[in-house]
Design goal:
Distance between the termini: 29 Å
Structural class: mainly alpha
Radius of gyration: 26 Å
Largest sheet: none
Number of domains: 1
Helix content: 55-70%
Order of helices and strands: HHHHHHH
Strand content: under 5%
Length: 264
Amino acid sequence: MPCPRGTAVICARCRHFAAAPGTTLCDRCRAAPPAPVGVPAAGGVPGPRPRSPVGLGWAAAVLLGAVVAADLFALAADLVQYDALGDLTKDGAGAEAFRRADSAGRLVGLAAEGRSVTMVACVVVYLCWFHRVRANAEVFDPAAQSMARGWAVAGWFVPVVSLWFPRRITLDIWHAGAPRGTPRPHLLVNAWWTMWLLTLLVGRLAKAAYDDAEDAALVHAATGEMMIGDVVDIVAAVLAILVVVRLTRMQHERAFAAAVPAAR
């Protein structure tokens, strides 16, 4: 029967009948199949529909792959410089050692430029994709979104909160896109976010050491730290690709499964 205002919990789906004890749905809605995404269960004007994240997801994954390639090139350049500077710090280093160190320095500079270009392109496309899947998550399960949509972009740039806001938003998107009644483990998201934070830490320390180095021995040691940063960055980018592919697939499958009943 209809739910008199103030006497019982109203059904979260139809907003008309009283919810069954211990649940958020009435007996009628619990027995009925879920409404297609974008169409209210009680009929009426269609609600918002999710936009496909597939195109942006593929673009983000490809550009993350380009970041991995740029990091591999930077790792190779750092290795060449590390070897050249190691010879330069030895007693009796001659003109050939200086020539190799100079060539290695130019190679490292070229790798840094390539990494900057790929990173900027990747950030732009990744944020477009991230905002898209966050908007879709609001269609799938608005109650699961703990932060406003604008934080999907701003959360990456605001100091301090950028250390956890993107992860929280990613988990909210993950929960909204997961099939109903299935486990929602966070291992992949947690691994990616841990490596991302480690990338920020190691990269900052390595850059500070490199900028402060005043002789060949110090540059040699700082280059070793840069190599560690390259490896961490590669692992973080690979995990980011897996997160992008997984979330994109989850939302695509969720939207397709919800649209099937409406087509029959």
